[in-house]
Specification:
Elements: H1 15-29, E1 33-39, H2 45-56, E2 62-68, H3 73-79, E3 84-89, H4 98-105, E4 115-119, E5 136-142, H5 149-152, H6 154-157, E6 162-166, H7 178-188, E7 196-199, H8 208-230
Parallel strand pairs: 1-4, 1-5, 2-3, 2-4, 5-6, 6-7
Bound molecules: guanosine-5'-triphosphate, magnesium ion (MG) and zinc ion.
Amino acid sequence: MQKQRIPIVENILSANDQVAALNRKLLDDTNVFALNIMASPGAGKTSVIEATIKALRDTLKIAVIEGDIATSIDSERVQKLGVEAVQINTGGNCHLEAGMIQNALTQLDLTAVDLLLVENVGNLVCPSGWKLGTHKNILIASVPEGDDKPYKYPTMYRGVDALVLNKIDLLPYIDFDMAYFKQGIELLNADLSSLNIFDVSCRTGDGLANWIEWLREQQAISTTNITSVRV
Ligand SMILES: Nc1nc2c(ncn2[C@@H]2O[C@H](COP(=O)(O)OP(=O)(O)OP(=O)(O)O)[C@@H](O)[C@H]2O)c(=O)[nH]1
Ligand SMILES: [Mg+2]
Ligand SMILES: [Zn+2]
């Protein structure tokens, strides 16, 4: 019987993933802990970034990369808080890619940064498919978007490290079934022990302390790991 040839397909990293790996190395080499903050338009990405800056700017050196299709409105908001911000205008692209972050990183003095917050383009479909080289993926959901979003946008809700449910101050005015929402998240994330969920309101400040505490812990763990790996 003739021997059959078995094709071997190498697992070649995509061009984006290769650049993401370079970004990660640069961040690790300079001791920067970085978050990729994703959400639909208007969920509260910039509001959470502003609240995070206010809570941590006295203990950590923070920088922000703002992804936006056309404007610098969000960079101006965070710069008002005394934080360095780099604006990426994607020119119509609906998500950030690793190459855009690579360029933005050249604009920052990373040796003077502990925590880098990257605001992705407002979009609940494709940002999760593009690695940036950041350490943690954060999804911000918000009450007015509706409780069915985990079911309708599973790729975004699957595999994130932390989920911030924002605008809980609006719960009395909106039919939002919290149990149904969280059940949807559980269906998509088998290992719930590694998913952190924070119910917050950037308007009232409710719940933000838990988010800040988790972030502070993660930054400390990451910095320790990075340092010990290098030693
Ligand atoms: N009621 C209420 N409104 C909020 C809360 N957080 C943010 N908002 C409002 O929601 C709107 C959008 O907030 P942003 O922080 O700009 O949202 P974003 O996700 O950065 O928006 P894009 O960058 O445009 O995608 C603003 O009018 C905020 O004032 C909240 O906790 N409660
Ligand atoms: Mg924004
Ligand atoms: Zn896209």
